[in-house]
Amino acid sequence: MKIISEAELKKEALLDVAKQMMIAARTAPKGRGIDNLVIAIIEKETIAIIASKMKEMVANGGYSEFFIRDAENILLSEVMLLLGTKINPIGLKQCGLCGFPDCETKNQHPDHPCSFNTGDLGISIGSAVSIASDCRVDNRIMFSAGKAVKELNLLGNEVKIIYGIPLSASSKSPFFDRK
After folding, report:
1. Strands (E), 36-94
2. Does the pTM exceed 0.90?
């Protein structure tokens, strides 16, 4: 007789959910159908590197203490989804949502976000976390983890805005009732 324990399957199950989240993010609607997303799954070893970087960012000044709280939170996660976007305007002539009159003018300011890129990222994040919710997997959207990922250049130079979504399957969500 073979008995499979929860502990044996937990990481595999979280990876499966993260993969489904990737697909949901990728297939979410995007302005003019232009896809600027970069999506990755990381595990414990890389999560620890990111947590260490988050703590370092506070120690070096300029970042709030809650980065330490968030670093401790992600260390309780087996798997984390990373979602980011490149800044690549979609070629509209009269949008102006970014503050510039058109995409051509906005392109003269390459680090200034395009409203469609950030909006597409937000819609993709919503699609991803809805999968986690449907699967009853605890998660939290963290810009703090994304900032550390960006500083570590884990998704490449072109990815300018990044969020981390740590996943957990425990009796109590480590991402709720935080200190």
Report:
1. 37-43, 79-86
2. yes
User: How many domains does the chain contain in total?
Assistant: 1
Give the tokens for residue 70.
């968030």
Report the candidate in 129, 117, 127, 132 with the shortest Cα–Cα distance to residue 162. 117
CATH code of the domain in which 152 resides? 3.40.109.10
Q: Which domain holds residue 58?
A: 36-87+125-168
Say how many Å lie between the first and final Cα of the chain, rounded: 45
Q: What angle do CA 145, 149, 155 make, to 5 degrees?
A: 135
Q: How do residues 134-169 score in pLDDT, each as one tens digit?
A: 999 999 999 999 999 999 999 999 999 999 999 999
Cα–Cα distance for residue pair 44/78, rounded to 1 Å? 6
Mind listing the pLDDT tens digit for each residue in 74-131?
999 999 999 999 999 998 888 999 999 999 999 999 989 999 999 999 999 999 999 9
- Per DSSP (E only), the strands in the chain are 37-43, 79-86, 138-139, 159-168
